[in-house]
């Protein structure tokens, strides 16, 4: 007998998404009436087809940004898992039920039901292969999962199962065959528009495109994601990863690449745009991309209220990039010393400390060099041009080496 508390919570969760669901639905419609030998049962309130449809409806609310749906998901999965394991053996003689169980396992349901099904005889094909391959994938046996699933043709499968298998195939292919993974994800996201499956396929494809260096399609799909799933529960993590990926494209390298960043971020509200420019600037500092850090921090500062914590952040990132260049070293160093560290996060306080230490080290190198400003002097142009033969140019590699140490410290401090 189920705990009444869990039953009440699950019932509340079902009411939440049934009342709030709009747009395309992940699951196939219930099979229509049919007669004759071997006819599939209609989906009712107590069969795997209905249970898995219920889970997918809830997951689609997660893609729309429902925190309540997200928090209810583990309870619903546990309830469905228990119902599947407790179902009478005869229901597994119907193909729709088998396919729903495979979809459930690949949608976060875990391996328990697949272990039971794969121990049975007479599952038939392609369900037997799909169940074994899905079980191998869920249990982390990727080589076996790839052997069983990589060549499966999903054309004749129901959309939800085809989507789950397609996402799995793409995950198995992404490291060694990113182009194939992109093609699979293209198919999945077109198969189930408006669902969590599409949202997940779109996120994965965007970062796989980053792996291949296709900036044009990366831009198009990123804009599509920001338009279609701005409130997804996973959007925050997406933006963090997006900032890192944009630095890998070195968007500050030239005007054309930076214009790509601007077009992407123009899809966001000003406050969200500001925050993502700050994320890009910080990621660029970590990656040693000073041009990207300078450009992104300037764009962020234009969106910051004077004296705000965000403005202090932007000034920090800009100054940390400026001290790598002799032409901007003095202004960057002065900015670092003027910042209110109380308005910075602990991670940014670490960046400030290491940047100040770097500036002092560079300043000691500058001190006494002919034709260069002294380390603690006010910013002013050099009285005479430095002579490369005297060694001032050697300070640039030294400064970059110090920034590399900042990157290392940040990477160790970043969870």
From TrEMBL:
Organism domain of life: Bacteria
Keyword Signal found: yes
Keywords of the record: Signal
The UniProt record lists the keyword Signal: yes
Signal peptide coordinates: 1-27
Region (Disordered): 27-47, 364-397
NCBIfam families: PRK12798.1-3
Name of the protein in its database record: Chemotaxis protein
């Amino acid at each position: 007998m189920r705990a009444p508390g869990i039953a009440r919570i699950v019932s509340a969760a079902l009411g939440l998404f049934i009342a709030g669901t709009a747009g395309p639905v992940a699951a196939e419609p219930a099979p229509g009436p049919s007669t004759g030998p071997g006819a599939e049962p209609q989906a009712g309130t107590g069969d795997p087809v209905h249970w898995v449809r219920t889970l997918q409806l809830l997951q689609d609310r997660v893609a729309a940004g429902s925190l309540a749906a997200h928090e209810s998901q583990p309870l619903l999965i546990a309830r469905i898992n228990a119902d599947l394991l407790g179902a009478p053996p005869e229901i597994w003689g119907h193909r729709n039920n088998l396919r729903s169980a495979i979809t459930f396992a690949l949608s976060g349901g875990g391996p328990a039901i697949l272990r039971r099904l794969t121990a049975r005889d007479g599952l038939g094909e392609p369900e037997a292969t799909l169940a074994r391959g899905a079980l191998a994938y869920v249990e982390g046996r990727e080589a076996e999962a790839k052997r069983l699933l990589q060549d499966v043709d999903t054309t004749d499968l129901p959309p939800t199962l085809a989507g789950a298998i397609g996402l799995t195939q793409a995950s198995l292919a992404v490291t060694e065959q990113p182009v194939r993974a992109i093609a699979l994800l293209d198919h999945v996201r077109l198969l189930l528009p408006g669902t969590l499956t599409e949202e997940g396929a779109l996120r994965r494809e965007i970062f796989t495109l980053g792996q291949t260096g296709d900036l044009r399609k990366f831009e198009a799909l990123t804009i599509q994601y920001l338009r279609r799933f701005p409130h997804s529960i996973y959007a925050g993590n997406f933006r963090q990863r997006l900032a890192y990926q944009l630095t890998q494209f070195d968007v500050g390298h030239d005007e054309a690449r930076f214009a790509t960043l601007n077009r992407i971020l123009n899809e966001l509200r000003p406050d969200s745009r500001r925050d993502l420019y700050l994320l890009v600037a910080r990621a660029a500092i970590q990656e040693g991309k000073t041009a990207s850090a300078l450009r992104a921090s300037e764009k962020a500062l234009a969106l910051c209220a004077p004296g705000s914590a965000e403005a202090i952040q932007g000034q920090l990132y800009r100054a940390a990039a400026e001290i790598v260049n002799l032409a901007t070293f003095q202004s960057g160093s002065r900015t670092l010393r003027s910042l209110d560290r109380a308005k910075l996060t602990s991670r940014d306080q670490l960046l400030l400390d290491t940047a100040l230490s770097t500036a002092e080290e560079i300043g000691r190198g500058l001190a006494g060099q002919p034709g260069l400003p002294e380390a603690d002097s006010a910013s002013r142009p050099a009285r005479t041009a430095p002579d490369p033969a005297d060694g001032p140019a050697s300070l640039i590699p030294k400064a970059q080496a110090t920034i590399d140490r900042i990157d290392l410290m940040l990477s160790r401090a970043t969870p």
